[in-house]
Structures are given as C-alpha cells and as structure tokens.
UniProtKB/TrEMBL annotation:
It holds the Pfam family Sua5_C. Its EC number is 2.7.7.87. This is Threonylcarbamoyl-AMP synthase. PANTHER family: SUA5, THREONYLCARBAMOYL-AMP SYNTHASE. Required for the formation of a threonylcarbamoyl group on adenosine at position 37 (t(6)A37) in tRNAs that read codons beginning with adenine. It catalyses: L-threonine + hydrogencarbonate + ATP = L-threonylcarbamoyladenylate + diphosphate + H2O. It is found in: Cytoplasm. Keywords: ATP-binding, Cytoplasm, Nucleotide-binding, Nucleotidyltransferase, Transferase, tRNA processing. Coiled coil: none annotated. It is an enzyme of class 2 (transferase).
Length: 342
C-alpha cells in the first residue's frame, strides 16, 4: 500500500486516534510513536494482524513482540501475576508505568502464540506516550508493537525514520514528533527468592537504569549475547547501521586504511576523549553537544547513527561512553551495532 503520514495535532488528537483505531480494528498495522521509539502496532489478540507485523519487518517468528496495555485492567487480560512476585511487579508498575519499563510475565491463553513466539511468557508495558495510550484505550484491546524498523536495523525515533524503513509496507504512520527517550524500554524478568529480596534480571538495558531498579530487588544485568532463538531480546546483530561501526579499547588502537573515509561518533566533541585529533574525520557527529548529559545522548543516539550511515563512509568510529546510569543502555546499543559487523 501507499504509506501515509498523519501528524498529531496537540489540541485535537481525535483525527489521528480515529484513523489509527479504524485501521487496527480492521486488522491492519500502523506505526505509532511511543516515548522510547516508534512502534509498529497491531491488535494483540488478532493473530492475522500480528502476522502482518512480522512480514512488514521481515522479522523471524522466533523473536516475540511486546504487548502494550493502556490500563492496569488490561494487564490481567494478557498476563498472570504469580503470588510470589505480585508485590514487586505492582511496585515496579506503580513506580515506572506509564513509562519505559517492560516486564516479562507468564502469559494468559488470550495472547496468541505468535505474539510470544510460542514462549509461555509475555513482555508487557504501558507506554508513557499519551497518543499511544489513547489509541489503545479507543481500540479497547492491548496492542502488540515491536520497534517500527526492519529486522536487525536501527530503531526509528521519528516518523521520517519509520518512512525510510517501512515505506510501501504499511498504510499509516502517526507522526508525534521525536521520541523523548530515544532508546528502547528496559526489559526485566522477576525471580522470587522466598524471604530474600527478589532478583530483577535485566534482559535489555534501557531508560530505566540499574540504579533505579535497585530499590525493588537485587538487580542482575544479563550479559548474555546470543543468536539462540530461545533467548529472545539478546540477539547479537541488532541496531546495525549498514556502514561498519568500530569501537576500540583505546583511541590509539584505531588504524585507518589509506584512502578510506571515516566518520566519528563523538560523545561531545571533547578532544580530551582522545578521538577528535586522532584522524582527519570526514564528518564528526556529537551525541550530546548541548548538555553533555547522557539523556541527550540517548535521545540522539539512533538519529545520529542513521545520519552517519547515510554519509557514504567506509566506517564509523564510535567513542565509548561511561557506563553509569543510561550509559549502560547506550553502550549496549553501540556494542551490538559494532559486533554485528563480525
Ligand atoms: O521501547 C520499546 O520496548 C519499543 C516500543 C515500541 O515499545 N519496543 C521494542 O520492541 O523495542 P522490539 O520488538 O523491537 O523489542 C522487544 C524485545 C525483543 O528483543 C524480544 O525478543 C523481547 O523484547 N521479548 C519479547 N517478549 C519476550 C519474552 N516473553 N521474554 C523475553 N524477551 C521478550
Ligand atoms: Mg526492535
């Protein structure tokens, strides 16, 4: 189909909500902004609609989708709350929902197996985006939505980026402007330990940081990176620009090949980081030119990766970011982008 972009009017979301809901209710798929990245939405209870999501993304069926609820009432429709973890799940939901935290829970029978790739669990979150939640409320059903990019590519943080990924494959993109978080939600799985504090396994680092989660249990960052279908969310070759992305232990390890064009993905253009004066870069892009803060870097990360990818470079060199707070999630995305080049 021809892909249409429809802008959200701040005062009057009704038109955008109405058009998105009409398509979703008819079993179609629509790209919708969330606070993290743009999602490709389908009625979570309609397996045929969900199948269209996998097709448009060219996503392998073994990689399950996140289900977005618009109210806590909907949580009970999609997930069970085992007694031993109900308390911590409710605390996490109370603290971070609506927001960028996804919780993996046992699924109910209502959720089609295609959504969860046959897993007995479902990944659930309530998005912090008002437009996304309004669409969910008006639809009256939970929404399955992965990031609105083709499989293995960079997640889109603007309607234009979705267009580049999925033009001609979906009927509608709701344009809600740039995403305010810029990287995908933190995914956790809870393990009860009886009398002890529960374990919170972080399956994907994201905007909700280890430091924030520690209040609710003992946090374990899952470092496992694999291409095994039984370990979803941990696929190695994610977030990949087409241009090779290189990272080094120390700046001096970079050995440019003569005649090749290199771009630098710098944190804030600071020569003290050791990269700015290392080479005559074709182009330098800064993750955090304004504030020098990690939140700005996260918001700009995928935008800058996309931009550099379009510059016809032979390779992109990325400065490492300090791994505290949001820096953990940013480095996770950079490493995966780098590793996928083999
Ligand atoms: O911020 C986000 O999470 C965005 C927005 C659209 O909500 N969504 C997103 O979806 O990033 P996606 O499909 O690109 O990534 C979801 C990840 C996948 O890597 C998938 O393997 C993992 O969540 N996942 C889904 N269900 C799971 C489950 N039952 N157990 C473990 N991991 C799961
Ligand atoms: Mg994704």
């Amino acid at each position: 189909p021809e892909t249409r972009i429809l802008s959200v009017d701040e005062e009057d979301m009704k038109t955008a909500v109405g058009e998105a809901v009409a398509l979703l209710a008819a079993g179609e798929i629509v790209a919708v902004p969330t606070e993290t990245v743009y999602g490709l939405a389908a009625d979570a209870f309609n397996a045929d609609a969900v199948a269209k999501v996998f097709a448009a993304k060219e996503r392998p069926a073994f990689d399950p989708l996140i289900v977005h609820i618009s109210s806590l009432k909907e949580l009970a429709e999609v997930a069970e709350l085992p007694e031993d973890i109900a308390g911590v799940v409710k605390s996490l939901a109370g603290a971070f929902w609506p927001g960028p935290l996804t919780i993996v829970l046992p699924k109910t029978d209502k959720v089609p197996d295609l959504v969860t790739s046959g897993l007995p669990t479902v990944a659930v979150r309530q998005s912090g985006s008002v437009i996304f939640r309004n669409i969910g409320k008006a639809l009256g059903r939970p929404i399955a939505a992965p990031s609105a990019n083709r499989f293995g590519r960079i997640s889109p943080t603007s309607a234009g980026a979705v267009m580049k990924e999925l033009d001609g494959r979906i009927p509608l993109i709701i344009d809600g402007g740039a995403c305010r978080e810029g990287i995908e939600s933190t995914i956790v799985k809870i393990e009860s330990r009886g009398e002890q504090r529960p374990l919170i396994h972080v399956l994907r680092a994201g905007p909700v940081t280890k430091e924030e989660l520690q209040k609710f249990g003992k946090v374990v960052i899952e470092k496992r990176v694999t291409d095994q279908p039984d370990a979803p969310g941990q696929l190695e070759s994610h977030y990949a620009p087409r241009t090779p992305l290189l990272m080094f232990e120390k700046p001096e390890d970079f050995r440019p090949e003569p005649g090749k064009k290199y771009g630098l993905l710098s944190y804030r253009g600071d020569p003290k980081a050791g990269y700015m004066d290392l080479h005559e870069w074709e182009v330098v892009e800064e993750l955090s030119p304004g504030s020098g803060k990690l939140i700005e870097a996260a918001v700009r990360l995928f935008y800058v990766m996309r931009f550099l990818d379009e510059q016809g470079l032979d390779a992109i060199v990325a400065e490492p970011v300090s791994e505290t707070g949001l820096g953990v999630a940013i480095m996770d995305r950079l490493r995966r982008a780098a590793v996928s080049q083999g």
